[in-house]
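Class, study these two lines:
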Amino acid sequence: MRKRSEFEALAMPHLPTVYRLARQMVGTDRAEDLAQDTYLKAWTHFGSFTPGTNCRAWLCRILHNTWISQWRKVRLELPVGDLDDLPQPGYDWEHEATRMTLSDDMQWALDQLPDAYRWAVLLADVEELTYQDIAATMDCPVGTVMSRISRGRRMLGRLLNERSRETTPPLRIVARER
């Protein structure tokens, strides 16, 4: 197994990215758990990471697979009690991870997309991964990635146009007297 220092040097700089993607996929309430599960799996399987390849894309793949696994499970939600009573982490990485936030309208529109399109658009347009890295992350051909991104962007455009029409009052043309 590789050294802890190598994992910290290669994987830890991408924690804000992983957390931000998790937050955009599952919301703020469950994002920290998803990010932690992702990093636990990354640490456990760090020996399978190929040095010199894109660690961010590797982590996004683990995040995607972890999210799919959690989504497929049917679990009972147990009441937690007062969240203020839970121990707080000794570090504040959430501030950096939440620096880049999407507008409310964009987040709303992304939430309306089917999951496959949302993942593809987020990985391409927010995280700026290559089509090849997205294909590896989503475990599908590059052509499928290109199609999902294209369709996702078109759907986003339509949703945002519809939303702006709903929230923008109609223009009134008033004739001026001369």
Observations:
- The chain has a mean pLDDT of 79.
- The first helix runs from residue 4 to 10.
- The domain at 1-75+94-101 is CATH 1.10.1740.10 (Rna Polymerase Sigma Factor; Chain: A).
- The chain has nine helices and no strands.
